[in-house]
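I am writing to request your help with a piece of structural work I have in hand. I set the record out below, with my sincere thanks for your time.
___
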Amino acid sequence: MTETFIDFEARTGGKYDPPESVTKLGRVFESWEACPTLFRSPGPGAIRAWFEGTLEHMAHPDAELLWLSDNENSTSPAESAQFGSLAILQPLHLQVCKTRERGSFLGLNHIIRSRTTPLGLGRDGLVWVPPSALGRGIRWAHVGTKRDAESYFGPDLASERSQVLDRIDAYIAEVAALEKAGAEFGDVPWYAMNAGQRQEMLETHGVQSRWTARV
């Protein structure tokens, strides 16, 4: 949903007051500026944790801050296309600020829970956006709850969720096998490499393709 921090404070009783760790890298919202729905691609392992109800952070637990985007898949397009992303429907709970980069925002990496009331976010604060919904033109400004969001995702949501979970399991198993075989990935995530690079590395280390063969 889209709202100003004045409306946010009136609706929730909370306070929009980003700490210095956020404001030194970003700019606070003016009273008349509306904060949009924001998104993050937290990684396949985190997406699985979200489904399992064990996700505690959308970034590394040691990170104080969290980078977010107003684009459904721009924090990691290659990842979102395979595993989906998370929509933060009420991001002012995270004390977000605007950064100099267009469409980029910064907030606090609060502890969250997916099947209990998350800290600050409320029960409907986070929603998984399936790959098929990316770029569909969902009017996120009018989406305030998980139920609202899922009404846009279509009747095959449960089936796609199952497919993505299988894809995540295959991905995690493939990466684990490569690591056990001594493969080094450098700074590029496995999912961001092109298919040729992945296949070459799998063959070099004698690892069976579990995920690469599917994409």
Notes: Residues 157-180 form the longest helix (24 residues). The chain is about 30% helix and 15% strand. Confidence is low (pLDDT under 50) at residues 114-119.
